[in-house]
Specification:
alpha+beta; Arc Repressor Mutant, subunit A; Trna Endonuclease, Chain: A, domain 1; five-stranded mixed beta sheet; three-stranded antiparallel beta sheet; 19 helices; 15 strands
């Protein structure tokens, strides 16, 4: 058999803003975690999300891609048989890296794509509120072809091993290696390599030499869909092929090098389909949940491996640009701006920051802030606040630091910091919010004045800690507000005088 495609055309990840869509989907899917699988309810929930708060597709016909492709190619969730009925289970990797205060898309994508392999558990249709399941005929046939040919192919791990092999053959830095798409598909179809999720280094070197000598060639045509890789913040696809992202400082250089080494030493793969001879036997490994549990990076990789593969010490420290093959230079210091210009809020802006460009100097503080703002709960609260302020005749604005700033016509100025909260983080989120409000008032005093009112915005009344509202309002002089489901604004009584012009 010939392998002509490696990644999905159903995940439209070419835009940088796609990362925001992935986060939105993860938050929506998390609402169904451990609940009976009901596709009608899932589609209805996807259709209800506001265009002003989310980048999820509005066209209901596209929901089939979100519901089927995202678990199949990314392991965003799985469907498990619980009490003889299918249930929706969000992956542990999604919970840790997407449904969180500061979502980390590259960490999620890298972990999951390192586990993605052929054969796999895609092409399965589950029946809502039942235990019935079927596998699509074309997927079944392709999966059986993979099994019969002994294939265990992990596309991303093949690419990583090829980068290492090229470095040895050419005596070049791993950061100066580009693997062409012709070569990727030639290697993917070579039986010396595609029998292994982590192909042997010697065999990879031999296959690359054979490719250069035109002894092995790629199938024609093939589908060159590699956009997903740019969201790993590790592999960069471009017109000529794929390569490692260039490091931005010496620490980042060391981390990228360690990640590649760790990946090329991984010995994990899923072999639960190996003995299957028909669709029923393929389904056995899906029904018992073994494939779904495997395709979950936090579950399958040990904690040390997860830590190495998701570490960001380099890109979250003061940034400098270094040449790909040089790691012994003095870093070029980058001074972050004191302030940023205000603008009208635009949900279409790319909230999520990535590092795929070797010429992009990043501000670590902004990276964390943008990740906070990409949290769907944060965006939903911000949407309610924006709509409420507009109803008061305001024209609220934002910038890279500030969630919203508004001037009530003839009646006061407000600086808002929105904080989404979960079961155990109310105090930590409040501490962040208080410090941010004080800092932004100081840094932007020339633009907005020091007499601006400060206000924390929560998803609901912050009364889990009995002294907290009194501390925020009475001691710190910061207003506290939240919105109910009808969009009505509520406020802490202790701070009523602080938000009077908003009422």
């Amino acid at each position: 058999m010939e392998i002509r495609d490696l990644f999905s055309h159903k995940i439209h990840s070419s835009s940088d803003s796609w990362a925001n869509k992935l986060i939105d989907l993860a938050f929506i899917f998390s609402e169904f975690d451990k609940k009976p699988y009901d596709r009608v309810k899932l589609e209805e929930r996807l259709s209800r999300i506001s265009p002003r708060a989310s980048s999820v597709a509005r066209d209901p016909s596209k929901f089939r891609d979100e519901i089927s492709a995202y678990p199949a190619y990314l392991g965003l969730y799985r469907v498990e048989l619980i009490n003889d009925s299918w249930h929706f289970v969000l992956s542990e990797t999604a919970k840790r890296f997407l449904v969180t205060e500061e979502p980390n898309v590259p960490a999620f994508i890298l972990l999951q794509l390192l586990l993605f392999q052929y054969p796999n558990g895609m092409g399965v249709a589950y029946y809502s509120n039942s235990n019935r399941v079927r596998i699509q005929a074309n997927t079944r046939d392709r999966t059986l072809d993979f099994i019969n040919n002994g294939i265990h192919l992990s596309p991303l791990r093949l690419i990583c091993k090829a980068i290492q092999a090229h470095s040895i053959i050419d005596k070049a830095s791993i950061f100066n290696i580009t693997i062409s798409y012709d070569e990727i598909f030639a290697l993917a179809n070579d039986s010396r390599l595609n029998q292994f999720c982590n192909p042997p280094l010697d065999s990879t070197i031999d296959a690359i030499i054979d490719f250069r000598n035109e002894i092995i060639v790629p199938p024609k045509p093939y589908e060159s869909r590699f956009h997903l890789l740019k969201h790993t913040d590790f592999i960069v696809p471009d017109r000529s092929g794929v390569r490692l992202r260039n490091p931005v400082n010496p620490t980042d250089y060391s981390e990228l090098t360690q990640k590649l080494q760790t990946i090329n030493e991984l010995d994990i793969s899923f072999q639960g389909f190996d003995s299957a001879t028909n669709s029923d036997e393929i389904l056995d490994s899906i029904i018992d949940g073994s494939w779904g549990r495997y395709f979950d990076g936090v579950r399958s990789f040990n904690s040390e491996t997860v830590e190495i593969l998701t570490s960001e010490k380099g890109i979250l420290e003061e940034t400098s640009i270094i040449e790909p093959a040089i790691d012994q230079i003095e870093p070029e210091k980058v001074q972050a701006p004191l302030t940023y210009a205000f603008r009208k809020r635009n949900q279409d802006n790319d909230l999520y920051s990535n590092y795929s460009s070797p010429k992009t100097k990043t501000d670590p503080e902004l990276t964390r802030i943008r990740r906070q703002k990409s949290n769907l709960d944060h965006k939903l609260i911000l949407q309610q606040l924006e709509e409420y302020l507009e109803s008061k005749g305001c024209e609220p604005v934002e910038n890279d630091h500030i969630d919203l700033y508004a001037q009530i016509p003839g009646n006061g100025k407000y600086l808002f910091e929105v904080k989404s909260t979960s079961e155990n983080n109310l105090l930590s989120q409040t501490r962040k919010g208080v410090s941010q409000l004080y800092e932004y008032r100081y840094r932007y005093q020339e633009q907005i004045g020091y007499d601006v009112n400060l206000c924390l915005v929560y998803p609901n009344k912050p009364d889990e800690i009995d002294w907290l509202e009194d501390y925020i309002c009475t001691d710190r002089g910061i207003g506290v507000i939240w919105f109910d489901e009808l969009g009505a604004m509520n406020y802490s009584e202790q701070g009523k005088s602080l938000v009077e012009s908003l009422i």
